[in-house]
Design goal:
This protein has 3 helices and 10 strands; from the N terminus they run αααββββββββββ. Strand 8 and strand 9 form a beta hairpin. With 146 residues, the protein is of the alpha+beta class. It has a 4-stranded antiparallel β-sheet, with no helix packed on it. Strands 4-9-8-7 form a 4-stranded antiparallel β-sheet. A two-stranded antiparallel sheet has the order 5-6.
Length: 146
């Protein structure tokens, strides 16, 4: 993440958020109709599907849900795609410190923070960090609703 780094300092978080929102405004024209949804962010949305499709170009479909809305984002002309997730790290611990059950209520699915950056070459970099620690990075030329 370029702007929204984890911090316990609330004033620093607010400054990061303000800097990010100023940078994000520069993406409005490139994103068109999808901009308002991305500007609002996907905090607390759950990842219900991530699909990779390869034909003439690589496309990624990311389906996110909250209790009221369902969004499918289509990432076109994908140049880079990364997912970092280690299931063994996401377990509850009992009083003795022993790892017991896999976290399933929030699991990897709830978005903690998402950040879209317009790169110098005109491409887009979109990162999602989930409460579990899972991280998704997609660099592409276009984002739209599917």
């Amino acid at each position: 993440m370029k702007y929204l780094k984890l911090t316990e300092d609330y004033a620093l978080w607010l400054q990061q958020l303000q800097d990010y929102q100023a940078a994000l405004a520069g993406c409005a024209e490139k994103l068109g109709a999808v901009f308002p949804a991305i500007k609002s962010g996907f905090h607390d949305y759950r990842l219900s599907e991530l699909r990779l499709e390869e034909a003439e170009e690589i496309k990624i479909y990311l389906t996110l849900n909250d209790f009221e809305q369902h969004q499918i984002l289509e990432f076109s002309k994908v140049e880079q795609f990364e997912v970092t997730y280690e299931a063994r790290n996401y377990r509850f611990t009992d009083e003795s410190g022993k790892k017991t059950a896999v976290i399933t209520d929030d699991g990897y699915g709830a978005v903690e923070v998402d950040e879209l950056v317009l790169l110098e070459d005109g491409k887009l970099s979109y990162e999602f960090r989930f409460f579990s620690g899972m991280h998704v990075l997609i660099k592409c030329a276009e984002i739209d609703f599917a």
